Amino acid sequence: MPPTSPIWAHFNKLGHVAGFRQARAQCKYCNHELNAAANKCIAHLKTCSSASITVLQGFFGPDFKLSAKQRINSHLPTEQNNIVTIKKQPQKSINNFVDKITSAEQNEAELLFAQAVYRCGLFLSLSELEPIKILFQKLRPCFKLPSRKALSTTLLDTVYEDTKDEINNLIKSTDYICLISDGWSNMLQEHWTNYLITTPRPVFFSAHQTGEIKQTGENIAADIDKVISQIDHSKLSAIITDNASSMKKAWKLLAIKYPNIVFLGCVAHSLNLLIGDIMKLPWADSTIKNGKKIVKYFKSHQIPAAVLKRYQRSSYDKQISLKLPVKTRWGSSAICLNSLQVNQLAIELTVTELSRNQTVRIDDDMRSIVLNDGFWKDVDNLLKVLNELVIGISMFESDTPFLSKVLDWYYNQLESSVYVFDINGNNTSIKNIIKKRWESIYHPVMEVAHLLDPSFHGCHLTSNSMDRISQFIQKYYSDNAVIIWTQILNYRRKTGVFANKLAWETSDNVDPITWWSGNFSDSAPELTQVAKKVLSIPTSSAASERNWSAFAYIHDKKRNRLRADRVFKLVYIYSNYRLQMPRETPEWKGFTNGFDKNTSLDGGVVDDEIQSSGENEESDYDDVNSSSENEESFNDNEADDSDVSC
Fold this sequence. Notes:
This protein is of the alpha+beta class.
């Protein structure tokens, strides 16, 4: 057969191979070698188990059938199994290939989209942005985004009413509630008053603009009375506001109509004022002023700032920014002094180097401050004092009711050695300042809460405390005063129904309200109700003040044309969504690096972020209570401490 035979498409010619007389060939499929004779190659291909059926039928014809061995090796079905049953599929409608949405699904999707916009505080024009349209067109072509008008009107009203129903149901299901209030002026100088209700977790209840109404004691009382009329005032334990004189006047007017409601000032506000009292001391005032000089110097001088950063990296392996205190927050002075303390080595090295530099001279005044050991000693003493007070502010501005801890905190301050130190060779104590400020903080309900908290059990009560507690019971619980007082005496002595040893052993393992409800709701129901009511009272109006950050976020410069009613609804949805989620205050955590009552600023709470030199030197960080600096307390221009808000 001539070499052009088609069989050679399936074999490789090897030529003459040692040991064989004839030329050899190799099968391309199984690599079998044989004599290069066409008829032998054809015979091999016919039985080759590695050749595919396509190759075999292409060479031998379509009628070629595989041998049994070839079927097994090629995994082909036998003739018996070669019949395939094809199930006829029903013809599909064109609707199966087109995205469609029902009217109910469209409405539900619009509502979910609106909820996301309101709860996240997004712009109402979000649905009109082209990238958002493209995204939803890709995800769900048939879904039509709601218009801006719908988001501003019908959908907003629907979500607001749903949220309002949830909040009202939550308030109704709570045994005892408290009302907290605060005032604020926005960027348009419109004065707002808002009200939050604690359940005990705070919820945003209402807010409105005061307009042309002057914030006198009478007007404030009338405004609060309107809010009380909207709730079940028999469940209202206390009303907490700031300490303005006009507020105290409103308390007296409201107490006539509601004699069973306790009126309290903000404890956190009072501690801020206490810090202000301390900062007025000559040595403290001098220390903070010199500290601010150092911070401002490095913020306003390029080369000294660069040298300082070099020493920070070499000394601490990071750049630790210097902080300036916020004008309206004396507590922020602790952060300023702490930033100086942790940078002391780098600052001293920088000043020493620049003192020898012939081209860049450092101010003599700056050098004398930094290289003065007395200054750094004063920084250390003042920081220890502020640290103790800032920890107290952190605790009492919490949403958790800590009224029983106020008395414990006060006596711990009196026993603390932090407030006694040497200043210029003179033994100095500031405990008298604390005692004087305590007079404006104290309320008998604090002693009642301290007594009824089983973890304290009135450990700090004095000889006159029981007299004040009995007067409190007679004033606020006159109907059951005898029964309640009898139960208090047994409770204090751990006699009668209060002799339960296991109950006292678990007092540190559960919160006080749970302890009372679980142990004595049946055996001492009258005192249990008093305990639940008193122990649910918060110590601060800070939650109401924090709510202004939500107003400032929703009604900002880009959305300053929003109407007041629309602003309220947007903030109502946004705030209540945030308030009902588990929260660690991010403002306070960033301010103090998350320290609690058992930790201290002495360990060097620092800001690892590098600050730009062009930032506002009076607002390097959020203030303690994360509220606007433009806030206005209910001030009737009377002589009082109300120039500083909580």
